[in-house]
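User: Predict the complex.
Assistant: Input components as received:
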Amino acid sequence: MQATVLLWCAASLLALAVAAILLKSHRIASSLSYSLTATVCAVMCAIAVSCIGVAPSTGVTLPLGLPWIGAIFLVDPLSAFFLAIVNLGGLTASIYALGYGRHEQSPHRVLPFFPAFIAGMNLVLLAGDAFSFLVSWEFMSLTSWALVLVHHQDEESRRAGYLYVLMASFGTFALLLAFGLLAGPDGHYAFAVVRSQQISPPVAALVLLLVLLGAGSKAGLLPLHVWLPEAHPAAPSHVSALMSGVMTKVAVYAVIRILFDLTGPPQWWWGLIIILMGGATALMGVLHALFQTDMKRVLAYSTIENIGFIFVGLGLALAFQADHFTAAAALAFTAALFHALNHSLFKSLMFFGSGAVLTRTGERDMEKLGGLIHRMPVTALVVLGGAAALSALPPWNGFVSEWLTFQTILLSPELPQWGLRLFVPATGALLALSVALAAACFVRFYGIIFLGRPRSAASAHAQETDRWSLGVMLGLAVLCLLIGILPGYVIDLMAPVTQTLLGTHVPQQSSVAWLSLVPISKARSSYNGFLIFIFIAISASLAAYGIHRLASKATRRAPIWACGFSRLNPATQYTAASFAQPIRRVFGPFLFRAREHVEMPAPGSMAPARFRTKWNDVIWDMLYLPIAEGVRVSTDRLNVLQFLTIRRYLSLVFVALVVLLLVIAIWR
Amino acid sequence: MALTRDLIVQGLQMLLVVALAPLVTGFIRKAKARLVRRRGPSVFQPYRDLLKLVRKETVLAENASWLFRAAPYLVFAATWVAAALVPTFATGLLFNWTADLIAIVALLGSARFFLALAGMDVGTSFGGIGASRELMIASLAEPAMIMIVFSLALLVGSTQLSTIAAFMISPDVGLRVTLGLALVSLMMVGIAENARIPVDNPATHLELTMVHEAMVLEYSGRHLALIELASSLRLLLYLSLIACLFLPWGMVPLRPELSIATLGAYAIGASAYAAKLALGCVMLALFETTIAKMRVFRVPAFLGAALMLGFLGALLLFVSRGL
């Protein structure tokens, strides 16, 4: 029933895409399309939330796709949870675009693909068989690729689009093989049948590898992340928000669906691999984010960090599940889901904020911004909330998922395997490091863009953004705070998901006294965001009251203290690059091969002294460049094949035939 | 009745930490002065300084934003809440379950987040240099702190500070390598987080190597008073934390019945707490007088050592669990 309605909604999104093509760049096309998309997303989000607690239905079978099974679409708690995330993201992005979309120079390049992209993500989540899953997955990739190429005049956008489509095709290919292995020799593509099959351990291991390649490349897992910081920022900001906040969650869904649901009982070392990849992804993502000066690239790299965080949770859940600690597995899984939800909210908020800055100043380069807190006060306020949530500060929502993940790590000494016992605490240290670095990263992000003095004329004369954008950003910021204050309700909402996948769930939280969060037992650990919030509010107001009663109220505005110089040029402020310098000195030489060059002119020379810094993405240099070089060399060699005579072509065909026949003969 | 008593203890604790914090700072200054054979100012000098500051006119830079004015209150509030949740003379505070040790560390992180932002608000290089270095230090000190929390939590099976303190009083704690590593690491983190020598110099405004003081250079008047008080509070918090975790003797255990004996226990707890604080202050003064400040880019090595010690402690527990 719900699956049918959701399918109709997805179909209407596709119809909106077609309508947008017909309307072209008509005056009302933009607002009409976005408001209708927002409505459909709101409906779908409401249905999805109501479906989370409902047992999985048999679903709808459409006479499309593979002739012998058709296309199956259904909703179960897991997909309902992710449908809620996707459509909440779609809803906020559409509302935001009501204002933001007016600044789009070529709306006819965005409008058809935007609803289609949301429909694609929804269809991936609804798919109940491998074929429709893969078709929807590819549809989602292609529509988002089209959105990355909206500003195709830029060389950088084209490069990003090329890299994206390469990686996306590679990812789909890996997933195709994974489903092929899961389906077995008889080609059972429906998830319900796949689930009931037994898979031998080596095949399951191969599936794990392929899933990590396929879905991991979409999520931005190290070392498959290289396309993400290019492609996400290249799209218009509301699409960036969808790609970073939501599409990565669809990839997380794919991993969960295949590894937790379809691939039978897990092995402990699956968890270990995912934990290690997640930890490395988190640290490298945040370090990269710290060194970027393009604000949207900072956010894209921060997405990679958060994906790492989510994968550590998933890996822990797999490890616990393999060792039959189901309660701990449920907690780890809940932490990962919670972080997925959190990240979708605050990353959307941050991309919306940077989109607002981008339209009002025309600048993406942080080095040319500054002082926007005076020009765009409301945007500055809500982005501050998003930055606090991303830095995992209590009482915001980011802290809750971080806290839950740490609590899970503290349960892991119970695990019997030595590999896990050695590497889980190491990953804990990596996560603690990346959380602290994330705080540094967002102090830098916020401090350079919104605080200080304007570094360019555009930044000095910016105006506050439109009401639609402000409203939706404010809503998201409030949601982030509310989830941080009342996490118990959200965790209870996730209980059916963990129940269906792991067979147990975290104890009910909303009935705990004072709305505390007690994931294991009261003596072990508890956290109460609500009371922390109240305490901070009370003590801040007590301090303010005391100060205003006792202290002198005299306030004087004076020029900045400039050490005796009369006029201080804004260029003398700390820049984004100089802010990151201490951390670059600490981590750069080893992880990024960072080098600093100082050119001092000879005494008496009038030439300026120069200081240059350089760092490399080691993974790009060590992995991707050799592959690209290998492809180039081998295609050069194979070029000879283009100029053969017909005799030689025929003999090649003959040799190929003989070889294949031999293979079959040996195989039998 | 029990609830009222708990409320009173919690309220007393909140007032106590605020009232005591400047005294701790003054005591350390006095001890340092005596160690270099100066007479030094009175131990109550920090109170006079705060009083003087709140009476003074506040000078704001022309382009200071609302964040610059709000930050001192937020910093103070977050630090105060964190300090009020660390048991001082009695464990079993009423609200200690609202935030475990991880949350307390994160609350201090929030305070630092806003202080660093405030440092960048006016747009001078001093604020920027302070903020960027403070965050470099924090980015290593905070994970080290989390590793210490991990060690303690694994040992006790809880991240609740009260439970950990109760465990530390109990006889089954014994001598453990992990605890030694955690203590050394915690001291190093405490020195870095409180901007003490050798990481930073709390007494100077002149050097370019300063970190914390550079960040708050633009503050004056009542705002500066709040920030100074918050710094003192943070120092007191770390001293109380070390005392509560590693010298728990004399603390009033979990919620006893109210009687004359209990009042006596509270008195003993309070005096033991005062003695522990005094000991901590003297130790810190001694340490600071005998060591030179290090270059700022030596700090990562110092804190990296703290991180590794904490990690080693946690790892030992992970590995020894199965033996």
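The beta strands of chain A are 60-62, 71-73, 555-558, 595-599, 610-614.
Let me know if you want any component modeled separately.
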